[in-house]
Hints:
Blueprint: H1 3-25, E1 46-58, E2 68-80, E3 94-95, E4 99-100, E5 104-113, E6 133-145, E7 148-159, E8 164-176, E9 179-190, H2 192-199, H3 203-212, E10 227-240, E11 245-256, H4 258-261, H5 264-269, E12 273-287
Antiparallel strand pairs: 1-2, 1-12, 3-5, 4-5, 5-6, 6-7, 7-8, 8-9, 9-10, 10-11, 11-12
Amino acid sequence: MPLIAWRFALALLVVVAPSIAVAADLPQQASPPTAPAAYVPAVPDWIVTIGAEGRIIPAFPGASDKKLGWSALPLFSIRKEGTPPDYFGPRDSFGFNLINSSVFQFGPALQIINQRKASDYAELNGLADVDYAAQIGAFVNFWPVSWLRLRGEVRQGIGGETGVTGDVFLDAVVPVGQWTLSAGPRMTLQTAAATSPYFSITAAQAAAANALQPGLPLLTAYNAGGGLYSYGAGTQVQYTFNPAWSAHAFVEYQRLTGSAADSPLVTQRGSPNQFTYGLGATYSFNMHPLW
């Protein structure tokens, strides 16, 4: 081939080769357009918390601080993943949030009151038994600032007592590392139907109690009414080991007042000072919603 022909062929190759290379990189056949998939937001998991708590309590309402009983209760709560755990105070009734915001919660409240058997303690021999009672109502929490909770409860008694009980609690709740410290005042009001079964004494009961226990201070007939039942304070400390495990301990003090404190059962055979001590632990785990 003449030299001029070689030069022409080489120039043609230099111009055409890049176009061939680019064409080789392009897809041979364009994919047909597809409709975008509908966005389905992820369903957050639940965080379920279960646990148990043991308590040392007054043996009966108005008992001396030397007369102690005990009780145990389960602990349970459920919340959405990513939300902080609810604060639960030692005097709070069992319940759950129907309305839940950063400053306001509202929901049902349930509390079970132990029975009082007169045959269990010398101080009660001759008085009437009081059956178990369920107090059913509602609670409201208000958080004016992130570390202060005001809680109110109103509950109707069913069973051993049939009155109305109202509680007001104020708690400062302060996290310190893995610790959460809380404390504050409490106040309880009751109607006569809630107070009377535990503190009223008929003339016949007073006579029977004095005859059965002649060595104890004498009881007289008494009719307990409603009003301010008690005031006091409480404190709780909680330690969170990890996201799954935590433990807590608390002390609660109630000072009986008004009609309850004036009952001969309290003034002669008991005390207006009522202490409760508690210790518990909880375990939290994730659970995917079933729907």
